[in-house]
Amino acid sequence: MADLPSDLADIRDEYEFLDPDDRYRLLIDLGRALEPMPDALKTDATLVRGCSASVWVYPTNAEGGTLHFLADSNAAITKGIIALVLKTVQDRLPADIAETDIEGALEPFDLKNQLSSNRTQGIPNMIALIRATAGRYR
Q: Which of the residues 26, 51, 57, 77 is marked catalytic?
């Protein structure tokens, strides 16, 4: 796996120059780079509803009151999309997460036009779950 850009702006810059197949590969690599989520946390309670693939998101309270999310999916490209979403909110304060324009941050990736609707239909639910979690920790 090549060195992956670490922040969303750098990922976006690389993504814009890639052809569709390489965009898929970048998403898959981002998903592979996610911190592993223990199988014990992959429960019905952490399952994101409305995704065609299985997606699990589990929040943890990190130092300084920030939220750190563990996430996984049984589909490689979906896992890459999760990685993009997490790049917008990972290790931030709940109040910051609640105010983050996650959809706006993802817009330059044009996921709705780059990927099938099956792969993107769960994104709003994933974002809603992250926002709701942040709201509970505020």
A: 51
Looking at the structure of the chain, the number of domains it has is 1
pLDDT in tens, 41-76: 999 999 998 878 899 999 998 778 999 999 999 999
- Give the span between the Cα atoms of 108 and 9, in whole angstroms: 10
Residue type, 27: L
- Whether 95 maps to a domain, the answer reads yes
Q: Give 79-93 pLDDT, tens digit per residue.
A: 999 999 999 999 999
Cα angle 74, 91, 122 (rounded to 5 degrees) comes to: 35
Residue 102 lies in a domain: yes
For 83, the domain range is 8-137
Q: Residue 31 maps to which CATH number?
A: 3.90.1010.10
In a domain, 2, yes or no: no
Supply 126's token pair: 């994933």
For this structure, is 51 an active site residue?
yes
Q: What is the pTM of this model?
A: 0.89
In a domain, 3, yes or no: no
With beta carbons less than 8 A apart as the criterion, state whether 40 and 66 touch. no
DSSP states of 65-96:
G-EEEEEEESSHHHHHHHHHHHHHHTTB-HHH
